[in-house]
Amino acid sequence: xxxxxxxxxxxxxxxxxxxxxxxxxxxxxxxxxxxxxxxxxxxxxxxxxxxxxxxxxxxxxxxxxxxxxxxxxxxxxxxxxxxxxxxxxxxxxxxxxxxxxxxxxxxxxxxxxxxxxxxxxxxxxxxxxxxxxxxxxxxxxxxxxxxxxxxxxxxxxxxxxxxxxxxxxxxxxxxxxxxxxxxxxxxxxxxxxxxxxxxxxxxxxxxxxxxxxxxxxxxxxxxxxxxxxxxxxxxxxxxxxxxxxxxxxxxxxxxxxxxxxxxxxxxxxxxxxxxxxxxxxxxxxxxxxxxxxxxxxxxxxxxxxxxxxxxxxxxxxxxxxxxxxxxxxxxxxxxxxxxxxxxxxxxxxxxxxxxxxxxxxxxxxxxxxxxxxxxxxxxxxxxxxxxxxxxxxxxxxxxxxxxxxxxxxxxxxxxxxxxxxxxxxxxxxxxxxxxxxxxxx
Length: 441
Fold this sequence. Notes:
Blueprint: H1 2-22, H2 29-46, H3 54-62, H4 67-74, H5 76-79, H6 83-99, E1 104-109, E2 116-130, E3 136-144, E4 156-157, E5 164-166, H7 167-178, H8 188-202, H9 207-233, H10 248-254, H11 270-283, H12 286-312, H13 321-327, H14 332-351, H15 357-368, H16 376-388, H17 399-410, H18 414-429, E6 436-437
Parallel strand pairs: 3-5
Antiparallel strand pairs: 1-2, 2-3, 2-6, 4-5
């Protein structure tokens, strides 16, 4: 009898464990609306379904607790797929969300001229003010909620007068810097940038904790790549989460692929999936996460200063002669686009809280890193590095020059480097950089 009771106790404990492991917190209605219901309607419309279909009604039902938000969402239907009308409708949704105290944000995108509404949760807000005009703008740090098949390469943007800092993209960018891979195509600029980046971080965060976090990132990466090879061999694609910690949803998606009852057999062992999940959990603990978040915060504040400058300084100003020559004398439109980025980079160097060297590193990689390409950011980076380094650079700055400029500028005290930025603005534009007031710590 005692043995039976003991078995029952063990079975009861096991059942309790399984129950608590499988029970997920109930998702907040607002989060479900913008993670699932609004993106579900976007998918339905992209497939040609009618404006008032089941997905549209489900979205409106999800918004019923907030009448003003529901009313704004209703306007998305008649606005689709017109770009201008959809931008206005999305802006009205965001205003309604702000007024209702809901920390979500809708961002209209138009890849290939086709409308997509991406959705985000708002993590934080910061108000910046232009000193000369008194005009203010609110920067938002956001994390993506929808799972639409649209990958963004931006770390932030200021479209529609809303400076947005995409935290999940910044997380991925930091993770890529921490991964240690044999480099088949070494790039001197990237190598120098990574060395300088680590030197700067050594002064800003706990070095030992960063090393531990780096080891954990690479451990997870090794396990993930092994699993991805098996998935591709089986012609199965599971999108890698674009964030620091993958989380339970990702592993629940993969779990059926470990089943022995799956047609064709399991793609990989359940034990391999558990090993990957343990490696992911290791990044979410106190030591693994704390230092990584500090690094991500540093990078995010740099992006914030860049996007805020876009929003606060919208003047049409002459394109600096050096920049226009780099772009091409006849391409005035691309020159204006590059000039906007040049002004934003000046603001980023001047206004961001982390050391300005971190922005110099980013400029170097934009100019001559492995993935440098002829974008407005590329030409702005060349013009600014040439000016800061006092180089002729009529055809741009060479790799060797970029490496030297990065090292020279990062060797300066931060105050002296920022003073050089102010002088560079006068050299390029003939006037001082307009002042903006950052939010208080």
